Each structure stands twice: as C-alpha cells, then as structure tokens.
Amino acid sequence: MARGLGDVLHYFDPALGPAAEPSSPTQAESRPEPGPVQLLAVPMEAADLLRGAIVWNLALELGRAGAAVEAVIPPDAGVPEEDATLGVRVSGAHAADWVRATGQARTRLADRTTLDAPGLLLAGLAAEATPAGAEHADRALLCCATEPVALERAEAQGRRWLEAGHDRLGVVIHGAGSVREARRAFERLAGPLERVAGQPIASFGLLVDDLALYRSLVERRPVGLTRPQSPAGRALADVARLLLAPEDST
Amino acid sequence: MSELRWTPPPPPDRLRSALRAALSRRGRPLRVLAEGIEGLSGSVDWVTADPAGRVVAVLLTLEEDRALELVARGLAERDALAARLAEWRQLAPELGLRTDAGVDVLLLAPEFSPAARAAAAALGDAVELARVRFAAVGAAPAQALLESLAEQPGEPAVATPRPRLSIFRSGLRDADLSPESRSA
Question: How much is the pTM?
Fold first, then answer.
C-alpha cells in the first residue's frame, strides 16, 4: 500500500508521528494535563471549493507548524478525507452531522494537546448549520475576498452569527493584491460588524493567489509543502502564525 | 467676527505643541509616547500610539522639497522601531502597546510631490501621508491642521468609517506577495 509523507515522518521525528499508545500505566500517568481545543467554524457556501482549499491548506500549514490540528469539511467542498499528512486528520461532515463530527474530532484532539500546545479544529460550516456552529464553536472565521460583493456576503454571514448569539468573529482576507487592499477590505467588513458585536473583530491576516490554493487542492499537493516560499505559501504561514498566537495578542 | 486665516508655521516650541494637539484630534487619535527620539536617520519627531495600542511613528518636515526623503526615512525608521516594540512592551506594559502589528508611519509635510506620493503608494500600507497647514483665528495662536492623503485620487471613497477597535493584522509586506521575492 502506498504511504504518504505523514506515514513516515515519525521515523525522523517521533513528535511528528501519530500519538503512541501508552505502554505502561506509568507512561499513561505521566502524560501532561490536556490543553484546550479551539473550534474555529468557517462559514461556507454550497460546493465551496475555494474555502475548502483554504481550510485544507491552513490545517496542513498549522500541522507543519507543529500544532495539533484536525479539519472537518463539508463533502461537497472537494477536500480529500485523509489521515493524515503531517498528522492532520481531515474528515467530511454534512451540515446535519456537523455537531457529532466536530465533537469526535475535538475528543481526538484533546488527547494530543497540552496546556502549552492547545489544539485547533477547523470546521467548514454550511449556512443552515449556523445555529449549531454558534452554539459549539469558539469563533467564527470569515474567509472573505476583497470585492464589494464578497464583503457584503461576508457581512451577512457575520450578522447571522451575531444574531445567533455568537459574538466572537475573526476574519481572513483572501485574494488580495496588496497588504493595503487587504487592510481596507478588513476595515470595511469589521466596521459594521464591530458596531453590532460591541467588541473587536479579530484579524487573522491575508491570503493571496486563490488560484494556487485551488490548484493545490485539485492536485492534492498542499502549498505549504510544495511551494512554501511562494507568495501563497508565505501568506499561509503568516495566517497560521496568527491563529496560533496567544489570545491576548488578538 | 475674526476670520480664519492661514499662517506660516509658528516658532519651534509652539509648532510642536500645535502638532501634538493636532495628532490627538485626528479621526484615529494618536497619543504621544515620546518626542524627538534618536532614530537611524536623525530624530523621530514623535512615537505615538492609537487607541488600539498600535504604534505610529510620526516624522515631520516643513520643507516641501524634502518630502521624498521623508518617505525613505519613514520606511527606515519603521523597521528600526518595530524591532524595539517587544522591549517597550516589557518596559512599560501599562501602555498597552501591540507588538504583533508592527509600526505605522505618518509623514507630515506642507505638500508631497507626485514622486513622494508614488513612493509612499508603492510601499503599500507602510506609510500614510498628511499635509500639514497652520491657521489662526484673530490673534489666537496658530493651530495645526492635518489633511490625510490616504485616499488616492480616483479611488472610491470608503463608505464605512474605519472600525475603532478592530485592528487588521499581518506580518506580510507587499514585497512578500511578489513572486520575484525570495526572502522568507
């Protein structure tokens, strides 16, 4: 059977491989206290291949950065289920199954986390599942392009979350041509949402070159592994860094 | 009734207090943390912070033909100051400075040549330009007025006011978004 990079990484660094079963009670007892798992829900549309590509690439980039990560993505987003490149497990879940799937992923992740290395669960979420997401997610992460139509759509998504009683929103701008363009897009989106939420909208940077992200998904070759020094790769690494930053720096 | 009139720049001591007041009156008010600190290329006129704790370095020239040089100085000082942010936050945590958002630069000059504007625009978000003028009513002391050039001609006006609390974050610069760049 063919093996992926994730299957052999632990030969080089055991920390990168799957968690080993404890071989003795002493070893199990010595495991550090589990850390928290943060569930980031990414609102998606039907057959949302681009956001599927973003979530998939981001999850793998976070894994590349050493984080304990899983991703749960709607099956129509074109993302391959796998277990697991860079230790990142990707599973599919329809809207109706979202709460169960993310709950299972959270449980699995909790076993791999410590207080020093909390886990991250990225979960694409269809609009109809927003109430469930608002109840269970720690933050909604809006992935928004810079065009006015995209900003309006993202603002509507954000308002739905706020109306559902969830006031912790974050934004990643994608498809930007410059940092200035991304900043302006963020400010146009964050301004009205901030006034409704009554608190800051967290910024998690920008992604560029949507085509490279989409192509990486089609070719099943994540940007962070194949072209980490490309603009898309550098931007992914920066967003991953911001997602892993301590809460007080947001 | 006395009329508002343009005035020449006031004497140096009054100039600085007028500009400090103008910085605090901006739409994004700036709180002065330090004045006249030593920089790479001379003095950084003011180190300030916006309400969200983002650090903004302010550089001033009253000579129009030095505006382009001011852009270059601003860029150099931005990087130098950014390297000191973590230390400042450690020394004065009560200031609430953000260390993850880098340093913004605000450049003040009576006018910016097309070359200076083009240079600033090419730097993306690194630099904001603002014209500085002075006006007085009757015998009252001159006030400084700052006119931001952030919106370039031909760009659509921003319909939504800037958020007051939410801060855009990125560790990237426009050079990182260029395929030609090989820097990590």
Answer: 0.60
